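Hi support team,

I'm opening this ticket because the web form for multi-chain structure prediction keeps timing out on my end. I have pasted the exact lines I submitted so you can reproduce it. The total is 920 residues across four entries, so I didn't expect it to be a heavy job. Is there a limit I'm missing, or should I split the entries? Thanks in advance, R.K.
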Amino acid sequence: MRHQVWQANMDLQRHQLVTFTWGNVSGIDRQQGIVVIKPSGVAYEALSADNMVVLDLEGNVLEGDLKPSSDTATHLALYQAFPDIGGIVHTHSPQATAWAQAGKAIPALGTTHADYFYGHIPCTRALTDEEIATDYEHNTGLVIVETIGSQDAMAIPGIIVKEHAPFSWGSDADQAVHNAVVLETVAAMATQTLQINPSVSAVNPALLDKHYLRKHGKNAYYGQGKTDKK
Amino acid sequence: MRHQVWQANMDLQRHQLVTFTWGNVSGIDRQQGIVVIKPSGVAYEALSADNMVVLDLEGNVLEGDLKPSSDTATHLALYQAFPDIGGIVHTHSPQATAWAQAGKAIPALGTTHADYFYGHIPCTRALTDEEIATDYEHNTGLVIVETIGSQDAMAIPGIIVKEHAPFSWGSDADQAVHNAVVLETVAAMATQTLQINPSVSAVNPALLDKHYLRKHGKNAYYGQGKTDKK
Amino acid sequence: MRHQVWQANMDLQRHQLVTFTWGNVSGIDRQQGIVVIKPSGVAYEALSADNMVVLDLEGNVLEGDLKPSSDTATHLALYQAFPDIGGIVHTHSPQATAWAQAGKAIPALGTTHADYFYGHIPCTRALTDEEIATDYEHNTGLVIVETIGSQDAMAIPGIIVKEHAPFSWGSDADQAVHNAVVLETVAAMATQTLQINPSVSAVNPALLDKHYLRKHGKNAYYGQGKTDKK
Amino acid sequence: MRHQVWQANMDLQRHQLVTFTWGNVSGIDRQQGIVVIKPSGVAYEALSADNMVVLDLEGNVLEGDLKPSSDTATHLALYQAFPDIGGIVHTHSPQATAWAQAGKAIPALGTTHADYFYGHIPCTRALTDEEIATDYEHNTGLVIVETIGSQDAMAIPGIIVKEHAPFSWGSDADQAVHNAVVLETVAAMATQTLQINPSVSAVNPALLDKHYLRKHGKNAYYGQGKTDKK
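Hello R.K., no limit was hit. The queue was backed up. Here is the completed structure from your submission:
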C-alpha cells in the first residue's frame, strides 16, 4: 500500500502535473481502516515508499516520521463521504487550475470528457471567510462533498475547487492519478474549444451516455474486459 | 504487416499524439484481404508486433488473442469506402479534438496545410441518437464517408468527427500517422491564426494548388523523387 | 557561494525559463559584502562555478576573468534597497514577459499565487527616455524599488518590468530561482483564467491570507518545519 | 562549410522548430561563390555533412547526389540581394507561421524583440497568381527583398511571408538559426501579449534603441566582446 501510493505520487510527476511539491496522492485500505499519504513539502526526489505517512481515518499518524500533507483533512473528508473511492489526488495542474480560478465548471464538450466523466466537471462555491479561518482543509473537503451532492462520485471522479485547484479520485491511487491526467487534458481541450467557438453547447446526451457506458458499467466493451478501464 | 502496424502505433506515441491508450492505427493488405489493428485498451508499453490483431474485412478475428480496438468498425467502413487508403489513424490529439468539439472545419490558412490537404479539413455532422444507439462505431465511419462525399480521400487525408476527435489516413499505416501529425499541427496553427486575426480568410487557391501539387501528383518536385512524399 | 550561484543558474535552464543566454542569477554574502553573478552572454554549457564573477556592492570585479552580466547594476540596486534578499533572478520567461509587454500587474487569482505572493505581482511604470539613456540598468533597479515601495519585498518576491521582463528574488539564489518558476507558472495560469472568464475578480483576501500564511511566517504549518518553504 | 550547414540544420531540429522535413538551412561562401544547402525532403536522421548539396549562385549543383531543397531559389534570391548575410533559415515554426497565416507584421512589444530586431518583423504582401504560377520560389525571395526595401537586412534578420511561414538570416548559418529561434519566441510572446492586452502599443523607441544597440554595433557592451552577439 505504501509502495502503491508512493508509485502513484511519482506517476503524478511523470505525467507533468506537478510543479515542485504542489501535489499529493493518498490511498485507503478500508478493511484495515488506514490511509497512506505523501508527506508535506518533501521534494519528489526525496520520496520513497518508506516515508509515506500512515494515518487512521481521524488523521492520527500511525506510522512515519514526517508530517502528512497539509491537505490531509481534505482527503479524509472525501474518504468519509464517498465509500467507493480508494484513492485521491490533488494537484495545481495549470489548465484545470485556470478553470478553478475562473470559477466555472468544465462543460462536457466531447467524447474525451464523456469517456471518464458522466457530465460536466463541477466547480465548488467559494468557501466563506469562516470556513477559511477554521478547519480550512476539512471544509475544503466538505464543500466538495456538498457540490457532488447526490451524484455518484465514481461517475464524476474529479472536481475543481473555486479559486484553488482540482481534486480527483478513483477506485485506487493509480486510478485517481489517471483521472487527474484526464481532468487536466479535458480542461485544456475545453479552453481551446471555447476559443474556437465561444457559443458551443454541451455534447449530445446520447453520445455522453454511449461513450461513458462503453467504458464503464456492466455492458462496457472497451478494453480487454479483465479490469474496469475507468 | 503486423510489425509495420505496431511500429506505426508506437510512432503515434512518439509524436505525442496519444494520452494513455487513446489512439489506434490499422493497416490493410488488400490483396490478402486482411486488416491489422491495435488491440483495445492495451498500454503502449505492453504492445508488440505479436499482439496486433488480424481481421478480415468483415471484422472477424483471424489471428490474435486480444480484442481489437473498440473503433475497429470505423476503420473497416473507411477501408470499404476508400479503395486507395492503406492505413488509418484515430487519436484524441488535443488541438484537432478542440476543433471537433467546436464543430468546425479547419480552414486552409497557409502552405503548411496546403502541402498535405487539398482544401479545408472537414468536420462531420453530429451523429443522430439512432446512429449512436446502434452500430455506433460503424456509423462513425459512414458519417465520415458521407462528409468526404465525392472528394478524393487521398487529397483530403483526414477529417474531424463532430463532438469526438480526428481520423486520418494515407497510403499505408506510416503515412496515416504522418497525416495525423500534420492534422494536429495545422489545427494548432489555425487556432493561433484566428486568435491573431479573427477575420482572416482562406489561403489563395492558386497558392493551395501550387503547394499541394509541388508535393503530390505527377509533376511533384519536392523531395528526392523516389517516393511520393505525401 | 560561487558553486551555489552556478547551480542556481543551471537550475534556471533546467526549469526551462531561459532561451539561449537570456537569464542570470546572482547571490549575495552580506557579511563579506560580495555579490556573485553569471558572466555576460556565456552559453550555459560553458558555465562553471569557476567562471562566476565576484563583485563588491559597487560593482567592482574582485575575482573572475569575464565581464559580469549586463544586468549587474539592476541586481546591485535591489540588494542595496532590500536588505532581506539573498539572491536575484532575471529571465525573459515567456508567460511573465507577455504580462510585462502587456504592461499589466498579474492579479492574484487563486491559491497557487497566494502560496508565494502576498498580493498581485506588480508591473513597474515604463522608464523615461532619460532613465533609458543614462544608467539604464541601474534605473531599472530603481523603478523596481519605487514600485515595491513600502511593501515587504520578501512577501512580493518578484515583479515585472514594463516592456521588458520579470525579476524575482528570495532568501538566497536557490529561492530566487524557485520564485522565478512560480512567477512564470502563475503568469500562465492568469492568462488562461482570463481567457475562460474575462470578468474574474481577485481571490478572496481571506483565502490569500490563509494560503500565504500557512506557508510563511511564524505560524506556518506547510512542509516539515525544518526550513521556511518560501 | 558543409559541416557547418549540416550542424545548423541539426540545431534547427534540436530547437524544435521543425516538424518532419519542414525546414532548411543554407550557408554561403562569398569568396568561393558557393552555397551549401540541405537536400529536399530528407529526414533529419538521414542527414550528414556529406549529403549537403553544393551549388553556385545560379543554382547549378556543383557537388552532391541529391536534389537541393525545393526552396533553394528563395535562398539564392536573398543572397543576391543582401550582400551581408551569410546564412538563411526557412521553417514552418508554429507561432511565427500563425502570424504569417494571419497576414500581420509582428510588432516590437518589448526588449526580447528589441535585442535582435530593430523594429517590427515585417509580413510580405501575398504573391500574385502570376508570381505563384511561374518561378514561385524565386518570387518568394523577391517579395521578401521588396518588403525589406531600403532597411538594413542585418538589423531586421527575419521576415514572415504571408500565407506561408518565416525566413530568417544572419552572418552565418548558425546565426540564422539563432534568429529563427528568436523569431519564433517573440512571435509567441506577441500573441500572448495581445491576448492579455489587445490595445497594447509598440515598445518605446528609446528602449528599442537601447536594447538593440547594447547588443549590436560598435558600442555594444553585452557579452564578452569577442564576437558580435547578434
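A quick check on our side: Helices of chain B lie at 2-14, 72-81, 94-102, 111-114, 129-133, 136-148, 173-196, 205-215. Let us know if the file doesn't open in your viewer.
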